[in-house]
Amino acid sequence: MDVSGASGQPRSGDDQPTDHPAVPTPPPPAAEAPAPTEDGPDTDTAATGTPDSNAPDSNTPGPEAARTEEPKDEAPETTGTTAPKTEPHETGADEAGADQAGADQAEADRAGADKAETDGAKTPEGTPDTAADTHETHRTLAHTEPPTGPAPGMAKGEPPRPPKEPGGGILMGRPFGVPVYVAPSWFLVAALITWVFGGQLDRVLPELGAARYLVSLFFAVAFYASVLVHELAHTVAAIRFKLPVRRIQLQFFGGVSEIEKEAETPGREFVLAFVGPLLSLVLAGLFYLAMKPVQPGTVPGVLLAGLMVSNLIVAAFNLLPGLPLDGGRMLRAVVWKITGKPMSGTVAAAWVGRALAVAVLVGLPLLNSSGGLGGGTEESGGMDTVTDALLAAILAAIIWTGAGNSLRMARLREHLPELRARTLTRRAVPVETDTPLSEALRRANAAGARALVVVDADGHPLSLVRESAIVGVPEHRRPWVPVSGLAQDLTDDMRVSAELSGEELLDALRAAPATEYLVVENTGEIYGVLSAADVERAFVKAMARPS
Hints:
Elements: H1 42-48, H2 61-78, H3 86-100, H4 106-122, H5 126-139, E1 170-173, E2 180-182, H6 184-204, H7 212-240, E3 245-251, E4 254-259, H8 266-291, H9 299-318, H10 326-339, H11 342-369, H12 382-415, H13 421-424, E5 428-432, H14 437-447, E6 451-455, E7 461-465, H15 467-471, E8 487-489, E9 495-497, H16 502-511, E10 516-520, E11 526-531, H17 532-544
Parallel strand pairs: 2-3, 5-6, 9-10
Antiparallel strand pairs: 1-2, 3-4, 6-7, 7-8, 10-11
Helix pairs in contact: 1-14, 3-4, 6-7, 7-8, 7-9, 8-9, 8-10, 10-11, 11-12
């Protein structure tokens, strides 16, 4: 809303938000004759809903049409509880019908007239007047008082909505209350494992024929079940340390436990990272013990051997000391413990992770072609070499990008406390639904505010006037455009506490993506409006400063 004052919008003033009192009380629309301002018809519009004599002649046709039609459109929005407006008309119709029938049946007429009058007394003919008197009374009250009745920010009669699911694929279950999703990419890697393992089974158990692919598919599912157990170990440890877990996702290369907060101590960080590989080692041991009584060269023997080896590989790979692997988090915890600075641990583990990415890209194909992974140079064909190189490139890319993301996330968490809702909030003024835009902007200018909150007669916030919508309204049309037509309805998630800061503030904004949010005090008072653009600018500015 940083447009010049001559346009009728709030002056930008100092763009640096500062602490300010709660929302000022809007002045009574017709309390006094306002002094002439640059906004022309804005001031008279608040009192009469029509422009003053100083309005340009060229605008006369438009305002006349708006003056005729606006009350019809705006009445339902202004008084949402006076819906039965047709009842007085129905009563009048009953009375007219009774008069016409009076010539034929006098006694029925009198009874019908008495009934109509009785019904008319019961109809809400007096209700609009009473509601209008109450409405006008509330218009002069400060809308910063904690409202009564329905919860602020929620439409009357609207049930609370359940929290949004994080999503991320097919929901498989909720162990320990944490949703587990299978990403679409899993089906690709499951098909790849089925094809590769099926080729190996053809050499070991040729008598299976085409059934080997069913056995291979079972192996792929069992392998990812082991990966899920690995991730559940991280989840259980996080829950034990009272760290929220958003979800578990099984994807192309393994699984991810999305823990929303960092461990508070390096010791907890180490334990949180180590339990995953530890449980993979335990699974490998269990598969080894289960393989002992099984005859080698059979389907159960081959499956158990494959699961034992795959879990050993998962444990060994995750113990590599570089982010984003579990071993990298363990290294981070050790450096954090030594230096006392979590950022130093992150930097060290991230750069080791990037070195590991280069080592995997170069070393994995060489190791496999030299027979270090069970192959041999004479047995390796061109397709095997290309497959090894492609696999190494994908793994290296995952490790490199994961290390970089870990480093960026650490810098983000370091600067997050600088983001505080109270200091970023714009001062706002409350206006009712039928307030013309020009009058609303005049009030905002007078109060030094840069945002508008649409409220009902009881002071409950209903919606937020969008800054982008204001800019799109020509100045000469602003006296005829009600603020309700430029506002975005408030939802529960769009109400944020003025006390939020850092990661909690960002979580609240991520829960309901919007351009503006209503900021309230703990008492329910309207503190102001938080613009997502202001948060983004403050965040970029904070991230630009050196750590």
